[in-house]
Amino acid sequence: MSGRQLNRVAVLSLHTSPLAQPGMGDAGGMNVYVLQSAKELAKRGVEVEIFTRATSSADKPLEEAAPGVLVRNIVAGPFEGLDKQDLPTQLCAFAAGVLREEARHDAGYYDLVHSHYWLSGQVGWLARDRWGVPLVHTAHTLAAVKNASLAAGDSPEPAARQIGEQQVVAEADRLIANTGEEAKQLIEIYHASPRSIDVVAPGADLGRYRPGDKAAARAQFGIDPSETVVAFVGRIQPLKAPDVLLRAAAELLASRPSLPLRVLVVGGPSGSGLDRPDSLIELAAELGISARVTFLPPQPSEKLVQVYRAADVVAVPSYNESFGLVAIEAQASGTPVIAADVGGLGVAVRSGETGVLVQGHRTAEWARALGAMLADRDGLARMASAAPDHAANFSWEHTAEGLLDSYRAAQFHFDRHEAPSEFSPRRVRGLSKLRRAGATA
User: Fold this and answer.
1) Rounded Cα–Cα distance for residues 286 and 289 (Å)
2) Is the pLDDT of residue 27 over 80?
3) Which residues share a beta bridge with 74?
4) Which of 99, 289, 388, 412 could disulfide-link to 2, CB 3.0 to 4.6 Å?
């Protein structure tokens, strides 16, 4: 649509690096999304430079993640001791690093900015105005949606975040939603224009995640071949609700003590879960099922696929998921999923065919649904057989094609209707923020 060539995209991922191990700290599905989509864009001839905040003195200023994909580690604040709630204090420092990098090149070095999460969106808004290129934004999660479905005792997202999200939604040239449900939330809660939203589903590495030898996978983790295995993969925090699975398992075992159940928990403490990093271990002991629960640290992808293969069922009991990459990865590996019917999980899981969606988070309901799945071995086998075909609809190749369509639409509308003039309110706002950031070119 646009006559402008798309050669290079600046991707902003301030609060978590695409090179970090998912399942620890703030690293999760967004990290996977940013890195995998960047690799696919690079294969299509679009260079990608990912800007993230350095969290260690050992981080190199520039790292090549893949051919055509560079990661720039920007020094913004102390390397350690900052959690996500502290990062708004480092927006100016991060913005300065981003803008100074662009200033080293001729004008027009970056053709588009794609920001991930609201913190990056604030910086992307500034970069868009300074560089005169469109801003595409992916929220990944939304404060208002998370606060509407908090786990008991979990801390709500601060009002400042929702205000910041609203600003980015208003300023972005295009918004990318993971699902139609997320698009609806952007429209109804954040008053986004429906014409500015593109729905682009995330994917899975289908070359990595595919069915394999269950016995070999179990042997790798020392799991008895005769056990019935239910796995949880993700960050250990109230939002992800691993406690829901443990409580359901305890209730199921109380009614069926002879069931050879093994609960496999793979992940590390994160977010509000850092306040009590051993809370899940303590809960298992309190429920009297410690001998039935195995805890593993986060696993790299080559081992994570073995976790999925080792399991009879993968559980995703989250209180909120914009999509749920774990559900797709598990199904691609040939394992059915039991998931909470929230957010994008209704798209990621085909209930009754590749898994089961559970309404709410009540222990009795989860125990009943999980027990029914495990008791119907023929039905479980049918789901396992159908799961990879469903997961095949979600690949990073598809995601990259959707992103390119959105980028072209952003360029088209920006060039013809929205490019700010030198003295427009948008340009004045951008220059004002630029001065505050102390990063004039």
Assistant:
1) 8
2) no
3) 53
4) 412
Instruction: Check if the beta carbon of residue 185 is closer than 8 Å to that of residue 192.
Output: no
Query: Comparing C-alpha atoms, which of 397, 399, 387 is closest to residue 210?
Result: 387
pLDDT of residue 427: 39
Query: Distance between CA 41 and CA 342 in Å, rounded?
Result: 30
Q: Which amino acid is at 75?
A: V
**Using alpha carbons only, how large is the chain's radius of gyration in Å?**
22
The pLDDT of residue 429: 40
Q: Against a cut of 0.85, is the pTM above it?
A: yes
The mean pLDDT value for 356-378 works out to 97
Structure tokens at 110: 């970056």
> Does residue 437 have a pLDDT over 80?
no
Cα distance between residue 243 and residue 285, in whole Å = 12
Q: How many CB atoms lie within 10 A of CB 184?
A: 14
